[in-house]
Amino acid sequence: MNATRRKTQSGSALIEFAFAFTVMAMLGIGAVSFGLAVQNSIIVADAANAGGLFGANSTYDITYTSGMQIVATQAGAQVPNFTSTATYFCTCTAGGAAVSCTSACGSDQPLYYVKVVTGGSFANFFNYGGLPSTFTLKGSVIMPVQ
After folding, report:
1. Is the pLDDT at 9 greater than 70, yes or no?
2. pLDDT value at residue 4
């Protein structure tokens, strides 16, 4: 009786392993894909920060937006479809409305700010039901010029 039972169950371990391996492989690939998406998102945000720091550390010429974009682009070079845009603006009070950087704010000088916006994309390894195949990643920073 024992030999008959072993014969009928001889392939069940292989079938169970195949199902378990498939599920575990899908979970593993999903975890790696999610991790890479988060990593690229962090890189995009850090690239915006790097460009903003470059522009905020110098009052020499805040109009050097191409330098801010170069720094951001170098920091985010490994992200697919990476883009960066840098601008500057002035306000009379912190958080106030934008004014011309050449105008006087009463007896005070205007406050200078730089803004860097970055973006990129991340494509999943596989198409997962209910999730888009490509994610758009965005980063943005506004820093006061010191």
Report:
1. no
2. 57
Of 13, 87, 91, 33, the closest CA to residue 55 belongs to 87
d(CA 33, CA 60): 43
DSSP assignment of 66-83: HHHHHHHHHHTTTSTT-E
**Segments forming the whole domain that contains residue 79:** 2-144
Whole-number Å distance between alpha carbons of 40 and 44: 6
Lowest mean pLDDT of 6-15, 74-83, 116-125, name the range: 6-15
Q: Note the helical H segments in 57-132.
A: 65-75
Percent of the chain whose predicted confidence (pLDDT) is above 70: 91
| Number of structural domains found in the chain | 1
